[in-house]
TrEMBL record:
This protein's name: Sec-independent protein translocase protein TatA
Tree of life domain: Bacteria
Family: Belongs to the TatA/E family.
GO biological process: protein transport by the Tat complex
Classification via NCBIfam families: PRK14861.1, tatAE
Gene3D superfamilies referenced in this protein's UniProt entry, alphabetically: 1.20.5.3310
Pfam families, per the entry: TatA_B_E (PF02416)
Record's keyword terms, sorted: Cell membrane, Membrane, Protein transport, Translocation, Transmembrane, Transmembrane helix, Transport
Annotated membrane topology: Single-pass membrane protein
Cited function: Part of the twin-arginine translocation (Tat) system that transports large folded proteins containing a characteristic twin-arginine motif in their signal peptide across membranes. TatA could form the protein-conducting channel of the Tat system.
Coiled coil: none
Amino acid sequence: MFNNIGVSGLILILAIALIVFGPSKLPQLGRAFGDTLREFRNSTRNIMDESERDHLIESEDKKRL
């Protein structure tokens, strides 16, 4: 999705964000965005771990039969 955004595109997005939100709000927005990404990554990792654990349990049950 973001593969086609170059350096000039990122600079343009940052300039618009600076104009809209102002310099005092940008660090708070960046921190909130980082926290959201971290939480999403942790949730995804937990879901994958649960899925792998369920798959291992199912394959062990099949081996027993």
